[in-house]
Structures
1.
Amino acid sequence: MDIQDLAVDIPAEGEHAMEGIDFITSGEQYLTFLLANEQYAVDILCVEEIRSWEVPTKIPNAPGYIKGVINMRGVIVPIVDLRLKFKIGEANYQETTVVIVLTYNVNDSSRTIGFVVDAVSDVLNVETNEIQNSPAFGGCVQPQYIDGLINVGKNVVTLLNVEQLQKVEQHAATH
């Protein structure tokens, strides 16, 4: 067999040689996770990795929802417990508890923070027209953290704004 015979099987530019794989041509993908039996989601392109829960190194005078920091391949990553940040119950670390490490790029810099969640659920494919505005009345999650809502079957998934999640509020140290 010569090289010309093999070249026939190479797909031309723009063709997809992988059959059986569902290519996404439009819309967005979100990683869904659980907090107190409610579903939330973040843009999957911001997900650096998903790690099992490990006790981080404490930071003195940090807000209660900041559990500490971990060393992730030489990068110091703050760990935020979303359940505590959103004030939706006590932190209960179990076998399914994971840390979703998100990196958000803005201008020429990036910020990496880990978020403790109860469990990771699924990857959700969403068309832009499926995203609904969150209602004007309050809830446990402050409006600046919410990008929208998605109906998934009988459930509603809250899309979180990764840029806003990356901002840590000023905290007055207690003496």
2.
Amino acid sequence: MDRCWLWLAALVCLTDAPAGDPVAVTYEPSRFFRAQILPILEHRCYECHSEAEGQDDGGLVLDSRSGWEKGGDHGPAVVPKDLGKSPLVRAILSHDPGSLMPPDDPLPAIEIALLQTWVLLGAPDPRP
């Protein structure tokens, strides 16, 4: 699928307003995080990167904002608004099997696009 379409799909996911709804579409950072990003982290990352699960592979936990801000062995996992400096983004895009995350089941393109959009939006995360 063409990258332009992936970005468009990710942007459509920024709102849950039905198509044709006369109400103005608004971007709510907390809602975007909880509806689009948190489920990806929970289902794809927490198995290995969750303080609650007792897993901090690479020193990284992703079940709190402070966890990804502090980061792991490679520093902060996300640099808000900077895809190139965000190790999380580099890991989900890696072509090196030793660096690709998650290692056994790569993310589908839409989840990658959503995570990239989240980073570009400044990585809003209402969690402590």
